[in-house]
Design goal:
With 430 residues, the chain is an alpha+beta fold. It is built from 13 helices and 19 strands. Bound molecules: glycine and manganese (II) ion (MN) (2 copies).
Length: 430
């Protein structure tokens, strides 16, 4: 298992043409209020290259004279501290992580200068919000001690690691399959138990209870339970309103399992029966979603499916009388954007919005390839106060989102067993 991480470190270092040193910090504990902190989650890039889950750590990777070394600096064990905050791995046992050497983080300052000698290129995580400040402080201290005379170039490592994260390996896919299955349970429980006149937060609680009961400590992002017109606020996370009989409920919720995300949205009627108007919009969005998923295969680029989703949704809205006029005119003037303001999907992995690139270094779109995972999530948002929308559709907000793995020949919808057809939803809720 730990071989995965050392292989990744080697792969990263082998890509450098010059001798280089990489300094990458772990995430830090974050204060919540006074002396309480948010639960700790490791920075995704740091985890990707180390598999190490503790805070207060730093990785130094070296390529010098074609030799490759990787060092981990971590918190040394301390009985008093462990009494309060639990066991640490400590330097003695850190050999299991597959680094060449592990040191007490307290010695980082005295060792860093040595690593900087005789290398031109110093790679830092300066595009990472979570870790860059700590790295910058550590490096700046060493710089100020004047022992870095030979470092010439300060370069970014964040985007290089993000590029590596684009294609998922078998083990990563396995974690995401599990995350999606945990998410499936939660969505199904939510649909089965919800009742008119209950509060959105009650459904949120059921979902999060289900995640945790199934072994997913984290939600991959804040759960959205948006009833009625609240679904027309895209990132509605208040979840504090009463759900009226007859309303649709949009649930966007995904568990994180072993650091890997899932991201699923379902929209269904709180009372278990779609009205004719709800069904018309729902099936239009669902048809678009199915058509887009069908397009996904190696060689396709994101813009292809974005353009297609705009065209299909615009045509659907024309058919329903939500938009009026000529399809090409509508697309030219981007009128569909009013009701479909977001993208068709995004990469998913260690982060729900995996920050992997969509374009290569030349600015060309990266074609889909086997092992990439992305969401497909068309949506239509028809505000209750929008007089331009046919009256029967006002207040309807619908998004349908699945997690799609690109395969050799096409794709696999990892979340396809989460009910989605009108008949299947109504049957599950009956
Ligand atoms: N849940 C966030 C998203 O769908 O992108
Ligand atoms: Mn999404
Ligand atoms: Mn989502």
């Amino acid at each position: 298992m730990n071989k995965i991480y050392s292989k990744r470190r080697k792969k990263l270092l082998k890509e450098f043409k010059n001798d280089a040193v990489v300094v990458l910090s772990s995430a830090a504990l974050k204060q919540r209020s006074n002396d309480t902190e948010f639960p700790f989650r490791q920075d995704s890039n740091f985890y990707y290259l180390s598999g190490f889950k503790e805070d207060n750590a730093c990785m130094v990777l070296l390529k010098k004279n074609n030799k490759i070394k990787s060092y981990l600096f971590l918190t040394e064990r301390n009985e008093q501290m462990e009494l309060w905050t639990g066991e640490r791995l400590g330097t003695e046992r850190a050999g299991t992580l597959g680094f060449d050497k592990c040191f007490d983080i307290k010695t980082l300052g005295s060792k860093l200068g040595k690593y900087f000698l005789d290398v031109d290129d110093l790679y830092l995580d300066f595009y990472s919000e979570i870790t860059s400040t700590r790295t910058a402080k550590r490096v700046a201290k060493t710089l100020s001690q004047g022992r870095t005379r030979s470092v010439k170039n300060f370069l970014d490592i964040t985007s290089i690691v993000q590029k590596m994260r684009l294609v998922k390996d078998e083990n990563e896919i396995k974690q995401m399959r599990k995350a999606v299955m945990i998410t499936k349970n939660a969505h199904h429980i939510a649909m089965q138990k919800i009742k008119p006149n209950s509060y959105e937060y009650k459904t949120q609680a059921r979902i999060e209870k289900s995640f945790k009961s199934d072994g997913a400590y984290w939600d991959a992002y804040t759960t959205i339970v948006a009833s009625g017109n609240n679904a027309n606020t895209l990132h509605y996370i208040l979840n504090d309103k009463k759900i009226n009989d007859g309303d649709l409920v949009l649930i966007d919720a995904g568990s994180e399992y072993n650091y890997y995300a899932s991201d699923v949205t379902r929209t269904f009627p709180v009372n278990g029966k779609f009205t004719p108007a709800q069904k018309e919009v729902y099936e239009m969005v669902l048809n678009v979603q199915l058509r887009i998923i069908e397009m996904i295969k190696p060689g396709i680029v994101k813009q292809d499916i974005q353009d297609a989703s705009e065209r299909f949704l615009a045509q659907g809205m024309l058919d329903l009388g939500i938009l009026k006029g000529d399809l090409d005119e509508i697309l030219k003037e981007k009128k569909q954007k009013k009701y479909y303001p977001h993208g068709i999907g995004h990469w998913m992995g260690l982060d729900v919005h995996d920050p992997c690139p969509y374009r290569d270094d030349e600015g060309n779109e990266i074609p889909f390839a086997k092992g990439m995972i992305l969401t497909i999530e068309p949506g239509i948002y028809l505000n209750a106060n929008d007089k331009e929308v046919p009256k029967k559709y006002r207040g309807i907000g619908i998004r349908i989102e699945d997690d799609i793995l690109v395969t050799k020949e096409g794709n696999e919808n990892l979340s396809k067993s989460i009910v989605k057809n009108v008949e299947d939803i109504e049957a599950l809720m009956a």
